[in-house]
Specification:
- The chain has helices at 3-42, 46-54, 59-68, 90-124, 143-172, 174-211, 219-226, 244-269, 278-306, 315-318, 324-330, 332-340, and strands at 136-139, 321-323, 346-347.
- With 371 residues, it is mainly α.
- 19% of the residues are buried.
- A three-stranded antiparallel beta sheet has the order 2-1-3.
- Helix 4 packs parallel to helix 9 (278-306) and helix 6 (174-211) packs across helix 8.
- The chain is elongated.
- It has twelve helices and three strands, in the order H-H-H-H-E-H-H-H-H-H-H-E-H-H-E.
- The N and C termini lie far apart (135 Å).
């Protein structure tokens, strides 16, 4: 046999060896597990009884099932969030609640509120000052009060935009910006939200302390609500410094929802206090999102009434002064108290020509004569 023929024979032998090796591996891979199964099914006596009693289900499945139920164990790790629990469902439960009812119901709530406000405006229009402006103005908000209001309001708007972006971004913004664009924006929104949040909290707390005395409920508020607050219909119910609707905004929005958002926000933002477990952190974020969404919905109504919905209302927070006709129509009891205290209305034409208002006490520029 020639050398070439011998090489061909050796090659065929190698191929046969490889094929048979593959066949043997396949057969053994199938046969050995099957043999174990057959042994478990056919063996009688104590070993079979022990196997049947202890392994009614897959032991590995039982291990993971126990872990997901929160079964305890032992660990040598240390740290504020280390426990003897192998695994937890807290994160998954939080994700399902956040992406489920919180996002779905919260989104529809805001849409319904916006549509309701739009429909109300289209049906009723702006609430005008009856009889037109008087041309006389009176101080409603001092400069420091206006600064606090706008400081807190602007912070609120920034937090609302960034917070809603993070809550609804996957559904609304990813189709617009794409995944990479949204990821970059989300990182910016997350950082902005965490920085502005504590600053905003200071403003809310100062508003509560400063204006709580104006928002004590009384019998006048009940009559204000019975008459539709002057927004529904043509009645002009009496009101003091704050009417019934503004008191609802103060107690329901600024106080209740505001403090809820602040407390839950601080729990989530500063986890190094030592008492926050994973459950507390997760529920804080859920409550934070729900309270913030409700507050934003209430804010939309508050902002509408104070701007587009009522003629002359915004001037109190921009100029600090309001027309006396507006004051008599919407806050007659407050106007009476102000006049009784010695405050005198200032004619519009006597205000400074450069557009700045007269001093908060109602004084006129030098050289002007009072009336």
């Amino acid at each position: 046999m020639s050398e070439h023929q011998q090489a061909a024979v050796r090659a065929r032998r190698r191929w046969r060896s490889m094929i048979w090796s593959i066949v043997a591996i396949f057969v053994l891979a199938v046969a050995l597990p099957s043999a174990g199964y057959l042994f478990a099914q056919t063996t009688t006596g104590e070993p079979q009884r022990q196997f049947s009693e202890q392994s009614e289900s897959n032991p590995r499945s039982d291990m993971w099932r126990d872990g997901r139920r929160g079964e305890g164990g032992f660990t040598t790790q240390t740290g504020p969030y280390v426990t003897n629990q192998m695994m937890t469902n807290v994160g998954e439960n939080y994700r399902q609640i956040r992406t489920g009812p919180v996002t779905t119901l919260g989104g529809w709530f805001l849409v319904i509120v916006f549509l309701a406000i739009t429909a109300f405006f289209l049906l009723t229009g702006q609430k005008k000052i009856e009889g037109g402006r008087s041309g006389q103005t009176i101080v409603r908000w001092q400069a420091y009060e206006r600064f606090l209001h706008w400081f807190t309001a602007i912070s609120f708007i920034i937090l609302a935009i960034t917070g809603l972006s993070l809550l609804f971004g996957r559904t609304v913004l990813i189709p617009i910006f794409g995944h990479q664009g949204f990821a970059a924006y989300a990182q910016l929104a997350y950082g902005t939200h965490n920085v502005v949040g504590p600053v905003f909290s200071v403003g809310v707390l100062m508003m509560i302390v400063l204006w709580v005395r104006h928002n004590i409920p009384n019998k006048t508020d009940l009559e204000w609500f019975k008459q539709g607050g002057g927004i529904v219909g043509n009645k002009h119910p009496s009101a003091g410094k704050m009417n019934g609707g503004e008191k609802v905004w103060f107690w329901g929005g600024v106080f209740a929802l505001g403090l809820t958002v602040i407390i839950t926000g601080f729990i989530a933002l500063f986890p190094n206090w030592g008492f926050q477990t994973r459950e507390i952190m997760s529920w804080s974020l859920i409550i934070h999102a729900v309270a913030a969404t409700l507050w934003i919905g209430l804010f939309l109504g508050h902002a509408y009434i104070g701007t587009l919905g009522t003629e002359g209302a915004l001037e109190g927070m921009t100029r600090g002064r309001v027309d006396t006709a507006w004051a008599k129509q919407h806050h007659d009891l407050w106007y009476q108290d102000v006049v009784a205290s010695g405050e005198k209305p200032v004619p519009e034409e006597e205000l400074r020509s450069d557009g700045k208002q007269a001093s908060p006490g109602g004084s006129r520029p030098a050289g002007q004569q009072g009336s």
